Amino acid sequence: MPIRIAVVGLGKIARDQHLPCIAKNRNLRLVAGVSRNAKAVGVPNFETLTDLIKSKVPVDAVALCTPPSVRLAMAKEALDAGYHVLIEKPPTPTVGEMTDMIAYASKKRRVLYATWHSRYNKAVDEAKKRLKGKHVNFLRVTWKEDVNKWHPGQQWIWEPGGFGVFDPGINALSIVTKIMPVPIFVGGGVIDVPENSATAIGAEIKFKRGDGAEADLSMVLDWRQRGEQIWDIDVGTRDGMKLKLSKGGSVLAVNGKTVMEAPLEEYEMIYEKFTRLLKSKTTDADCSPLQLMCDCFMLARPKVTRKFEWDKS
Ligand code: NAP
Q: Is 65 in the pocket of ligand 1 (CB under 6 A)?
């Protein structure tokens, strides 16, 4: 019997990816939508998770596609109702909340799957394989995109817990923490915060190797990019290998030669994995990208920049 799933928070990513990928997967069946201002087609819809639970519509799992600031309370309510839980990235606003969510899912004996969609690329897997056992002495993450294009009119991204430019930046960190053969830590940096915002619009971060070895490791994030959108990760190793992941981790070049160009199937892979996790009753919730991002806020210097205004053109 297919897994009965409800999608909570029918915003951009739920409509762009979750609903279509659930529809494509024959091991899953959408049974409800939960959102205050939107509806899923062809299924019962509810304004809140509480209303869904009260309705007695049979549900095995929920996908929480709301902003991170409200996830912990929602996840707990869903787990209390006996549902398994899949969550969008970033999982929660703090590591403390994520740790609590993992412990709660374990106590309730339910599966918690913290998705990191950018990790689901064959080129990322290949990069990890090629870096295994190597000594990385260079890393440059360049994540430059237009906030108007990817988060049109979303106010939550500018509020505390909305992460600002780290909302996409954490995608890069989810790849970095997957492919790096050793952990890296934040050394310092600068975070640009618009005068009318609680979160960052740009950042320049320095990292360091955990073993103290000399290395040039850094990241630039910018939401003020116009024209070409750039999501690149360049890695260099002591033995001279130069590896470049581009287009958000879907294209891999090694020493200047493209070795893999994989189609973007991140959410298809996420839902395939979710069905496997449910079958084996296994939780998958890696805190490391969130930890690294939180450490950027701990150690980088904030710099107030000019007021942010949405593009009206
Ligand atoms: P969004 O368009 O704002 O959608 C989120 C939805 O959650 C809203 O439409 C809203 O639906 C509901 N919601 C908002 N605030 C809420 C609250 N306080 N309580 C309950 N429900 C609330 O945002 P999104 O772009 O889809 O992003 C959602 C998550 O997906 C974020 O964590 C983001 O990082 C991640 N993500 C986004 C993208 C992207 O391209 N945008 C890509 C990958 C991952 P109702 O008002 O109808 O309740």
A: yes
Three-state DSSP at 291 gives: helix
Q: Is the CB of 264 under 6 A from ligand 1?
A: no
Last residue of a domain, one of 114, 134, 153: 114
Domain count, the chain: 2
12 and 48 belong to one structural domain: yes
Same-domain pairing of 130 and 63: no
In sequence order, what are the residues at sequence separation of 6 or more whose Cβ sits closer than 8 angstroms to the Cβ of residue 264? 121, 248, 250
Q: Which domain holds residue 46?
A: 3-114
Per-residue pLDDT of the chain in tens (313 residues, 90 and over written 9): 899 999 999 999 999 999 999 999 999 999 999 999 999 999 999 999 999 999 989 999 999 999 999 999 999 999 999 999 999 999 999 999 999 999 999 999 999 999 999 999 999 999 999 999 999 999 999 999 999 999 999 999 999 989 999 999 999 999 999 999 999 999 999 999 999 999 999 999 999 998 899 999 999 999 999 999 999 999 999 999 999 999 999 999 999 999 999 888 999 999 999 999 999 999 999 999 999 999 999 999 999 999 999 998 7
- Per the listing, tokens 């003020």 go with 224
Q: Is residue 188 part of a domain?
A: yes
pTM, full prediction:
0.96
Rounded to an integer, what distance in angstroms lies between the CA atom of residue 212 and that of residue 209?
5
Helix (H) or strand (E) holding 62: strand 61-64
Domain boundary among 93, 114, 135: 114
Which of 7, 8, 10, 13 gets mutated to test ligand 1 (max ligand atoms within 8 A of its CB)? 13
